[in-house]
Design goal:
With 296 residues, this protein is of the alpha/beta class. It has 8 helices and 12 strands.
Length: 296
């Protein structure tokens, strides 16, 4: 028995299939990402659960967290296509690699990478596979491009190391990653968070002059929304502290603490018990509540 294969036709079908697959893959990448105008010359880049912002000035771009190589590659190409301006600064929000990987995509002789000194120290010590910042600061710094600026501030411990706020002027857009999240519960068991530090830092941010808030996760909002985020943290923290003082077990608190005022927040039902556990562990580890001889 013999078989005849029309080689040109077979290769033609294969080529068409490969082309369709490539086009589908390109469209899938495009569907994963989007750029939204926040206000004036400040834009938000959305990558599934992560967000960053960038500002388009008269002669350059001030960018923030690259997120990862794939996201940064798409964003760089879109910035080139839409604005055709060089990237002058890339500012890291903190040391967590789910936000600052992909820095190599933006690396050039004319691009400076900026971070708070503790974030840079941690990225260097842990040999993070991204660009290590060449500009650092301790408490505050202003970056300028044309008639625009970004004010960077470090508020102390809150999430990870060297986590900062970024105020884009004159648009009055505030950008903070991880320790302020709008429209959603804080992440599960609050890994790497300093709860009291988050409260202190958010109180500081609320004193700043901004109109619009953009987070590294969650929704865009206003000062009112940031205040609600702060109120939730305070109420959660107070409820767990009261449970500890009464000698309640963690399991008891996870089933009995309810904060219905915040039930409209995304993931309220599934993450509230995890948030409670996170605060409890935070109190045990950072406040040493488990060592207190005066507790029941």
């Amino acid at each position: 028995m013999s078989y005849f294969v029309n080689v040109p036709a077979a290769f033609g079908r294969l080529a068409i299939a490969c082309t369709l697959f490539a086009l589908t893959s390109i469209q899938a990448v495009a569907d994963d990402y989007r750029i939204e105008k926040v206000k004036d010359n400040v834009y938000r880049f959305v990558d599934d659960r992560h967000r960053n912002v960038f500002m388009v000035t008269e002669d350059a771009i001030i960018a923030t967290d690259p997120i990862n190589t794939r996201a940064a590659t798409w964003l760089k190409a879109e910035i080139k296509k839409r604005f055709n301006k060089p990237i002058k600064f890339v500012v890291y929000s903190h040391n967590h690699t789910d936000h600052v990987y992909g820095g190599e995509v933006f690396k050039s002789p004319d691009t400076r990478f900026v971070a708070q000194e503790l974030a840079r120290q941690d990225l260097a010590i842990t040999h993070a596979n991204t660009v290590i910042p060449d500009i650092t600061f301790k408490d505050a710094m202003h970056l300028y491009s044309g008639t625009n600026s970004v004010e960077l501030k470090y508020w102390g411990d809150n999430d990870g190391r060297g986590s900062i706020s970024m105020l884009f002027k004159p648009a009055k857009v505030m950008y903070v990653v991880d320790w302020i999240v709008l429209g959603r519960m804080p992440w599960q068991k609050l890994w790497s968070y300093d709860i009291q530090g988050m409260i202190n830092s958010t109180e500081g941010v609320l004193k700043e002059d901004f109109d619009i808030f953009v987070g590294g996760h969650g929704e865009v909002g206003t000062k009112k929304d940031v205040q609600e985020s702060l109120d939730y943290l305070k109420d959660l923290y107070a409820a767990v502290i009261q449970g500890v003082l009464k000698g309640e077990s963690l399991d008891y608190m996870k089933t009995h603490i309810k904060l219905p005022k915040y039930k409209h927040l995304a993931h309220y039902e599934e993450w509230l018990p995890l948030n409670i556990e996170g605060v409890y562990n935070n109190l045990m580890e950072k406040s040493g509540q488990g060592w207190r001889p005066d507790l029941p």
